[in-house]
């Protein structure tokens, strides 16, 4: 049983406790702080005051079971971030997710929350093991079928965008992958940044950090990291925030053109399915790109197998050794 501490400690003390895996001691010391942050957050959302206790409980579970044991939290303190600041960020992000979930229920909007197979939990990516609730989509028999429809629409959108806008398609694809926090590979960088060197590609990927740090980085950090590459290799002007505005415009659309989310809508005579919030779309992107990457690996493996050439060695004479076997499969 951990020590019952009801006040915040110093950053150094928290760092020592996390390094010793004493998550209970850390959690007990900041319960009141969590409650304070939840109350402040809900102050401007009067309708959702009724969820105060539920939100507090869920935030506590998230902080104790996911945030405190994460490598990203530990590395943040080691790099000089204050415990109070980083915890507040974690609390706020969790509350944003909870509030969107409750808003979707209230407005009868179908949201990604219980859609995908449980195998997605194996990705070990925080908040990415999602499944779809289809109780507001009255005509939807199979929620997995609905997800497949959305994936198909998005795949067609990417293909069409590549054909119509070949010069910016690679930029959009890279930014969408970064939005989802999926792995970036050399092909993504070669396509987006013509002439990029191997060392520059290595620095780009290393600057994102390992899997856990990459996921924990907020959008502002990501765009600050990638901005110099767009300046150097694509000769683009503007601040890092201009990249984010460019992507958001393509996702949400404007008065002149529909966005990606508009193109992913699924309607029937009873209901409308639409992805309405940024985090939900990022979760969808994560699943889409992870599946696509796995399929590409499988296809490459099959192609490699078919292209293998076998040399036949005769059992008796060495007079005739064909260089290529007639049997390639």
Beta-strand proportion = under 5%
Structural class: mainly alpha
- Dominant shape: globular
Low-confidence stretches: 1-5, 108-141, 307-329
Query: Helicity, in percent?
Result: 55-70%
* Order of helical and strand elements: HHHHHHHHHHHHHHEEH
Strand order of the largest sheet: 1-2
**Separation of the first and last Cα atoms:** 62 Å
Radius of gyration: 25 Å
Question: Main beta sheet, described?
Answer: 2 strands, antiparallel
Mean pLDDT: 77
Number of strands: 2
Describe the fold and architecture:
The chain is mainly alpha-helical and 329 residues long. It has 2 domains: 11-107, Rna Polymerase Sigma Factor, Chain: A (Orthogonal Bundle), CATH 1.10.1740; 143-291, no CATH class. 60% of the residues lie in helices and 1% in strands. It has 15 helices and 2 strands. A two-stranded antiparallel sheet has the order 1-2. The longest helix has 29 residues, at 278-306. The termini are far apart. The model is unreliable at 1-5, 108-141 and 307-329 (pLDDT under 50).
Outline of the structure:
The chain has 329 residues and is mainly alpha-helical. The chain has two domains: 97 residues, Rna Polymerase Sigma Factor, Chain: A (Orthogonal Bundle), CATH 1.10.1740; 149 residues, no CATH class.
């Amino acid at each position: 049983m951990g020590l019952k501490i009801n006040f915040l400690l110093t950053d150094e003390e928290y760092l020592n406790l996390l390094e010793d895996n004493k998550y209970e001691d850390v959690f007990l010391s900041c319960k009141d702080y969590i409650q304070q942050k939840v109350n402040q957050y809900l102050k401007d959302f009067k309708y959702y005051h009724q969820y105060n206790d539920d939100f507090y409980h869920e935030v506590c579970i998230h902080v104790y079971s996911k945030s405190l044991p994460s490598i990203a939290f530990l590395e943040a303190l080691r790099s000089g971030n204050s415990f109070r600041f980083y915890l507040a960020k974690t609390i706020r992000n969790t509350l944003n997710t909870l509030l969107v979930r409750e808003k979707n229920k209230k407005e009868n909007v179908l949201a990604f929350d219980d859609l995908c197979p449980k195998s997605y939990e194996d990705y070990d990516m925080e908040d990415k093991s999602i499944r779809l609730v289809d109780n507001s989509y009255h005509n939807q028999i199979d929620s997995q079928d609905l997800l497949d429809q959305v994936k198909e629409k998005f795949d067609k959108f990417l293909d069409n965008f590549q054909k119509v806008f070949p010069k910016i398609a690679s930029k959009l694809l890279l930014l969408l992958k970064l939005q989802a926090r999926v792995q970036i590979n050399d092909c993504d960088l070669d396509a987006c940044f013509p002439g990029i060197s191997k060392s520059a590609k290595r620095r780009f990927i290393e600057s994102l950090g390992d899997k856990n740090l990459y996921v924990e980085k907020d959008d502002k950090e990501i765009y600050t990291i990638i901005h110099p590459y767009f300046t150097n290799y694509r000769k683009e002007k503007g601040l890092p925030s201009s990249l984010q505005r460019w992507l958001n415009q393509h996702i949400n659309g404007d008065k002149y053109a529909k966005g990606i989310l508009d193109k992913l809508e699924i309607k029937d005579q009873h209901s409308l399915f639409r992805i309405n919030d940024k985090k939900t779309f990022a979760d969808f992107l994560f699943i889409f790109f992870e599946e696509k990457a796995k399929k590409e690996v499988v296809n490459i493996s099959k192609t490699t197998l078919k292209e293998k050439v076998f040399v036949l060695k005769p059992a008796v004479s060495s007079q005739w050794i064909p260089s290529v076997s007639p049997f390639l499969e």
